[in-house]
Amino acid sequence: MNGRPTAAAAGKIDVGGDLTVNRLGFGAMRITGPGIWGDPPDRDRAKEALRRAVALDVNFIDTADSYGPEVSERLIAEALYPYPEKLVIATKGGLVRPGPGQWVPDGRPQHLRRTCEGSLARLRLDRIDLYQFHRPDPRVPIAESIGALAELKDEGKIRHVGVSNFTEDQFREAERVTAIVSVQNRYNVVDRSSEPMLDVCDLEMVVFIPWAPIEETGAIPALIAAARRRGVTERQVALAWLLTRSPQVLPIPGSGNPEHVEENVAAASIELTDEEIRTITLAVAV
Asked: Quick one: pLDDT at residue 170?
């Protein structure tokens, strides 16, 4: 790509012990319409964003049946099928969408089976490499929801099981049912409420996928200073900081804009100094 930085600069990470990907992925939530509802304003541009990510060595794409709903998965298949070798597509199930901006948990086993099979069809896959339970449903025991995914794994429809929006206690309950190889929780420079879960992932070699990795940078002087020194954006520095937080962190910045995709991927080549890492880690948004 004419000497542009690629996702390979972030290094590699193992997912489940048998899938190796570059440690900067692509989150496909933003290739849908406003409120993560319906088609994006420009479908061709959204598909070009996906192709640009893959051209820049991104080989981990995260999506969900609820993005659109179903729109994100269909666009991924339209843009990238037949898939490049070693491209890992992770998807999620467990949320339903009554309307734009609305997210309702549904962890019933029959629902998860139906959504998994729908994702297989939309993505044109025989098996989903990483299938994640999108959010615990307070009406359904976690063991029942994860049990449904374990059954799908036994049937060969899922390769690995992950969870999303989980606490440590919920994670422990899930791993008593089947092996959990990833946790996807909200985490960024400003919102570190999932720090305890990230620490668990770090200790146990579980992949931690921070969602909204650059949504909140805030007016953080340490970010601003580091960005100005390098002539890059604060969001790029925020991504570079995430990559230093733990070798188990796999950020998934996403965009429906191919130029923004390039900007995000370029963050993989930013090397922060120890002092910059320290000051950003200690920073509080003002």
From this structure: 98
- Give me the CATH number covering residue 93: 3.20.20.100
Is residue 204 assigned to a domain? yes
- Confidence label for 4 from pLDDT (cuts 50, 70 and 90): confident
> Would you state the pLDDT for residue 286?
42
Which tokens in the block code for residue 146? 């994860």
Q: Which of 67, 81, 83, 131 is catalytic?
A: 67
CA torsion 56-278-276-241 (nearest 10°) is 10
Distance, in Å, from the CA atom of 233 to the CA atom of 78, rounded to the nearest integer, reads 31
Parent domain of 173? 7-282
From CA 242, how far away is CA 25, in angstroms rounded?
Answer: 13
Q: Is the pTM of this model over 0.70?
A: yes
User: CA 168 to CA 213: how far, in whole Å?
Assistant: 20
Is 2 among the domain residues? no
Please count the structural domains in the chain.
1
Q: Please say whether the beta carbons of 130 and 15 come within 8 A.
A: yes
CB atoms within 10 A of CB 114: 14
Q: Is 131 a catalytic residue?
A: no
- Cα 59 from chain centroid (whole Å): 12
Is residue 40 situated within a structural domain?
A: yes
Q: Considering the domain boundaries, does residue 214 fall inside one?
A: yes
Quote the pLDDT of residue 150: 98
Question: What's the whole-number average pLDDT of the chain?
Answer: 96
Residue 105, preceding peptide bond in cis (omega within 30° of 0)? no
- Which residue stretches of the chain are H helix? 43-55, 71-80, 109-123, 142-154, 168-175, 195-204, 221-230, 234-245, 258-266, 274-282
